[in-house]
Every structure is written in C-alpha cells, then in structure tokens.
Write a structure and sequence with these properties.
Layout (H helix, E strand, L loop, with lengths): L6 E10 L2 E8 L5 H4 L9 H16 L5 E9 L10 E10 L4 E9 L2 E10 L1
Antiparallel strand pairs: 1-2, 2-4, 3-6, 4-5, 5-6
Length: 120
C-alpha cells in the first residue's frame, strides 16, 4: 500500500452517493523519487493508478484490483515539489461485473490523469 508512505489523505468528501473526492499530499521525500527521477521527481503512472485503486477500495470496503482499463490518459506529469497536493475524484458504480469507475487526478484546472475502467 502507498497510503501513509507515498501519499497522505488530507481530506475526503462524498458529495453524492457513489462519488468521492479525496485531497492527498505526496511525500516528496519518498525513495521512489530518487529513481524516478533524480533532480526531476515525477509521480509514476503506476503509483497514480495504485492510489486510485486504494482510495476506491477504501470507500467501497472491498479489496479491489484493476480488471480492465477501458481508457487511461496521462495528460500532465506531477512534480511533487511543484504540486504537493492533488484531488482524486472518483465516480463509481457496482455492477455484476465489478466496480466500474471514472477517475480524475487533478489540481485546480490542471488534469494529470483520466481513467475509466473496471475493478474487481
């Protein structure tokens, strides 16, 4: 798990059923950034996806894994020094197939990741 080590939850709101908005702070001193990349830290895409998975698992109370990524777009890089906090917005629906989710990682008007997929 990355929670508590790579990122910390600052605030979480559920403005409506099956919607969660979470503000997280990146740990810019985490060892991952020494290799990704020295003197130019960037949050790895796999860590962004793991963060979404962990937040969705927490809100649903289920241990979820990505089953299918229908659409995943990395639109901007996240430098934890320049953007130490982001908002993760997740809309989800539980179906017979699993948990369908649309997620966005952003800060103000800058979108870093858009994801649509299925968790099980």
């Amino acid at each position: 798990m990355l929670a508590g080590k790579f990122y910390t939850v600052i605030a979480q709101q559920q403005p409506e059923a099956q919607v969660v908005h979470t503000t997280i702070a990146w740990n810019g001193d985490h060892a991952i950034f020494k290799g990704h990349f020295p003197d130019q830290p960037v949050v790895p895409g796999v860590c962004m996806m793991q963060t979404i998975q962990e937040l969705l698992s927490g809100v649903t109370g289920r241990n979820l894994l990505v089953k299918k990524a229908a659409n995943m777009k990395f639109l901007n890089m996240i430098d934890p020094r320049q953007t130490p906090q982001v908002t993760v917005e997740i809309k989800y629906e539980t179906t017979e197939e699993g948990v369908k989710a649309n997620a966005v990682i952003k800060h103000d008007a800058t979108v870093f990741l858009k994801f649509q997929g299925l968790f099980k």
